[in-house]
Amino acid sequence: MYSIRVESTFSSAHNLRGYKGKCEALHGHNWKVEAVVASQGLDKTGMVIDFKVVKHQLNTILEKLDHAYLNKIPYFKAHNPTSEQIALYVYTQLKKKVKQLASVTVWENSTSSATYAQ
After folding, report:
1. What are residue 105's DSSP bridge partners?
2. CB 106 within 8 A of CB 89
3. pTM higher than 0.70, yes or no?
4. Are the beta carbons of 28 and 77 closer than 8 angstroms?
5. Three-state DSSP class for residue 117
6. Which of 31, 42, 48, 64 sits most deeply, having the most CB atoms within 10 A of its CB?
7. What does residue 99 show for φ and ψ, rounded to 5 degrees?
8. So which residues are the catalytic ones?
9. pLDDT, tens digit, for every residue of 84-114?
10. What range defines the domain where residue 21 resides?
11. CATH no. for residue 22?
């Protein structure tokens, strides 16, 4: 199995509904997002997929989250904007464009992340 990884970032604010603690208050993060694409084989050029294709598709999704208050984005009005839900949201959106997508990891800081994989 081959896999490639691309990373990108975005900055946004959110607050966690129903959470008892500091994260219940409005606060922000400089998020790092990692997308992993996997394949049993390689294409005719010897790649899983071109890095720039995945980066472009990922950045298109993250542009909608960058410098936004996540709680006001329609998806996050219905789903608490946790790292886990952000990973699921990005995965679902990116999977529409990159069929071999294996996982998305969202880092809210250098020591804490959440991953969604199917």
Report:
1. 34, 115
2. no
3. yes
4. no
5. strand
6. 31
7. -65, -30
8. 23, 67, 108
9. 999 999 999 999 999 999 999 999 999 999 9
10. 2-117
11. 3.30.479.10
